[in-house]
Amino acid sequence: MWVDFCLAVLTGTAVLYGPGFFAWRALGMRGLAALSCAPLFSILAYSILGVVYFFLGVRSTALSVGLSVAVVSLAAYGLLLFVARRKGVALGSGERADRQFDAALVSAYLAVGVVVGLFAFVLPLDGPASSVQTYDNVHHFASVRSFSDSGMWSSLHVSSYLDVSDPAANPLPGTGYPSGWHIVCSMVVSALGVEVALAVNAVNFLFAAIVFPLSMAFLMKVLFSGDRAIALIGALGAVAVGAFPWVLVEVWPLYPNTAAFALVPVLVACFAAVWGRDASRRERVAYGAVFVLGCCCMAFMQPNAVFSAAVFLIPFCVYRSTATGGGGGGPAGRGAETSHGGHAGGRVGRARVRCLAVGGCAFSALHARSRRSVLASDPFKGAGSRERARHGIRRILRAADRCVPSRGGRAVH
Question: Considering the entire predicted model, what is its pTM?
Fold first, then answer.
């Protein structure tokens, strides 16, 4: 059965990376960017097609869904090659040094990810079809089996009894649930005919040991483009933290969350790449499109991954606001004096920071109120809540002002 496990991992890899890679290449992305972002397109396309097939009455299988998406992505890439050849434009993968760096990153992150994944995830299994019997897994395994048996892969009609027509056995209609992870597992089951538990383990290994390291490789390249040694060394730490992904696939399995969180670094990297100093207009448009489509993909994976990405992107937005606001050190800041002796760029930067700070607090308060377990410790409850809220907001605004330097690079106090 371990041979089936290896075949399932390879099949899942082709399912996730095949169509998406060529689709992003057609959009103009290259190398590591196209490879690491490929699962976003593939999962989004499979999920949308599953809904369409459900309403059309077409049975969803690995062939009917996977082949359709693959044909569309290959056709788009082929059309790009044809147009480029007619115009005499060579479609390369960037400069040779950049291609070599991408190859080094992919090799390093995949090698470490696969080795750690084998020791941390595969070896502890008592068999390739081993499973953890938890409440969540009852739903996840049943949904994968129901998808595979019924041929209905619609995220808007999820049920454990899709293949049962008897109302006595299936009295409730299917409901909406993010099923991107379930569709990938069903693709493996449909293609190879393996057990659901084996397909689940193979897909979880794929997301933890391959998808997540490649996502981190792209993020490290975007963040540390000027220091390639740091980006390469990051391969040692990408999968070295037990909190993620290993806790979510071993201690208390949250499989769809694991798959979605494995792609969060790609979302963060695409958003940051839009503001890259050396990015061309076409690259900015491509990264922006991938970010938007990636957020749409998370609606079919686990929407909370978008909020997790926001946790990392809010500090980046603050940094970009201060940088583009000309906080005293940049060329835009110097010479932007106002008639009142103030600093125009600094005031713009501080205004942005204040808006982000207040917005972040509002978002955090809204999120906290949605969790009944922490309402008892809500500092804004009880007597004097309005006054404490005003005092807290004033402190936040003062701290936000200090984030933006004034003239001469000195902080505003």
Answer: 0.77
